[in-house]
Write a structure and sequence with these properties.
By secondary structure, this protein is α/β, with parallel strands linked by helices. It contains twelve helices and 20 strands. Helix 1 packs parallel to helix 12. 49% of the residues are buried. The protein binds flavin-adenine dinucleotide. The site of flavin-adenine dinucleotide has 43 residues, from helix 1, strand 14 and helix 12.
């Protein structure tokens, strides 16, 4: 276990994608002493790979979104990870869910119309929720709600249109065969990460910033805070003097809820291709999406979000499995029931160091991302997925925000170099 130093130039709070990105940039600069203070007994935060059945499963981030623009794609390849480029079929194959080919075309056209309407409305003076552009009583409204719960972790009435359209998506999505979490474990190798060192207070009154952690006190000239907005908004970390603007911005950018259930699947499925994507229901927002035999593995990955996920988390893995088994039996035939067993599941809302899955902006709060990301007195810097202006809610957005904060911290230290 890394010893807790008493004094460093830069302390990074959190060893998720943003914290690892920040720490690597600082480490590579070679001019400053650093420590990463991490509450958990592992690195990666919301990127975490496990292997309960011998093959890797990503509990959090799995997809290299905007993979052709994602800086982690070339890094992963350089480190010898195998990048799987088969494009996902998210919500494009509704005929597998009992819809006709004509209905599937209608849905795809409607989805495009929604995209354009969101862009149009986002330029209006007043921000509003994504639900604003729903057609009242529309045939596909429940599926639009379900897709919002998967993409944003929240239903359409809670999500800012203006923020939503700022997200940049190149449409290319890749996976890492070894797991996204394993990549971040590799990227954290050699970094001075003090685990089980939850920070409870950042006192930035004096010349030296004082950090109270579960393992003792550290002083630092600069601090980079990379914890989720939920941790800031609930004041799990207290700032002295208080930072009310940060608290308000974090509250405007809550974490939505998305969870996964991993199911083992015995034997092949007749008439079903491998690595396909299924939508459980096209008529209820309380549904799951499924990757069947992803990367040819004997498994089904189930994904669900929003209020539905929050409720299922409370009920536990058995309830998740029972729901998924019913939907899958309806779609693939009841014989599948005997061949499935639950492998693992997540409960990101109940996780004390995440308290949710990824950030969305409440209506009227799109500009909170810039408020959250702004440094305080050029001494306390902020990073994390919620600080990203265009790649929020993703691992690469977090990584890039960490690098930006590290560069700002380095620049702020430059005039004082040699004084310490
Ligand atoms: C189910 C799910 C699926 C997802 N799918 C994708 C995907 O396919 N692609 C993608 O790009 N993104 C995906 N994401 C989002 C992605 O995982 C996150 O946006 C990203 O990992 C966030 O990184 P971060 O560094 O900002 O925060 P975190 O990963 O949360 O890191 C913050 C760290 O701070 C630590 N911490 C918290 N409180 C304290 C404290 N008081 N003191 C010290 N340390 C503390 C935490 O333990 C954590 O390690 C998914 C997330 C989930 C949950």
């Amino acid at each position: 276990m890394t010893d807790l130093p008493s004094d460093v130039d830069v302390a990074v709070i959190g060893a998720g994608a943003a914290g690892i990105g920040a720490a690597r940039r600082l480490w590579e600069a070679g001019t400053v002493s650093i420590v990463v203070l991490e509450a958990r007994e592992r690195v990666g935060g919301r990127v975490h790979t496990i292997a309960p059945a011998g093959f890797p499963l990503d509990r959090g981030a799995e997809w290299l979104h905007s993979a052709d623009r994602n800086p982690l794609s070339p890094i992963a390849q350089h480190l010898g990870f195998s990048v799987h480029r088969r494009p996902p079929e998210w919500t494009t194959r509704l005929r597998r869910s009992g819809e006709t080919v004509e209905a599937e075309d209608e849905w795809i056209a409607l989805r495009e119309a929604q995209r354009l309407a969101r862009r149009r409305v986002a330029t209006e003076a007043e921000d509003g929720p994504l639900a604003m552009v729903l057609e009242p009583g529309g045939r596909w409204n429940e599926l639009l709600e379900a897709t919002s719960s998967w993409a944003n972790g929240a239903e359409l009435d809670r999500v800012s249109i203006r923020d939503y359209v700022r997200y940049e998506d190149s449409g290319t999505n890749w996976r890492l065969r070894e797991g996204y979490g394993r990549l971040f474990e590799r990227l954290a190798e050699g970094l001075p990460v003090a685990q089980e060192a939850a920070v409870s207070q950042v006192d930035h009154c004096g010349d030296a910033i004082r950090l109270d952690t579960a393992r003792g006190t550290v002083t630092a000239s600069r601090v980079i805070v990379t914890v989720p907005t939920s941790i800031i908004a609930c004041e799990v970390i207290r700032f002295n003097p208080p930072l009310p603007d940060k608290l308000a911005a974090a509250a405007g950018l809550p974490l939505g809820v998305d969870d996964k259930l991993f199911i083992s699947l015995e034997g092949p499925l007749p008439d079903v291709e491998h690595d396909i994507y299924l939508v459980g229901s096209t008529t209820s927002r309380e549904t799951m999406s499924y990757q069947v035999r992803p990367l040819d593995r004997p498994a089904i990955y189930c994904f669900f979000g929003g209020r539905f996920a929050a409720a299922l988390e409370r009920e536990g893995q058995e309830a998740m499995f029972s729901f998924a088994a019913d939907e899958l039996a309806r779609l693939l035939g009841s014989a599948i029931r005997k061949r499935m067993a639950p492998l693992a599941s997540t409960a990101w809302l109940q996780d004390p160091w995440s308290r949710g899955s990824y950030s969305f902006a409440l209506p009227g709060h799109a500009d909170d991302r810039a408020v959250l990301a702004a440094p305080v007195d050029d001494r306390v810097f902020f990073a994390g997925e919620a600080c990203s202006p265009n790649f929020f809610s993703t691992a690469h957005g977090a990584w890039l925000s960490g690098i930006s904060a590290a560069e700002a911290a380095l620049a702020s230290l430059r005039p004082a170099a040699g004084n310490r």
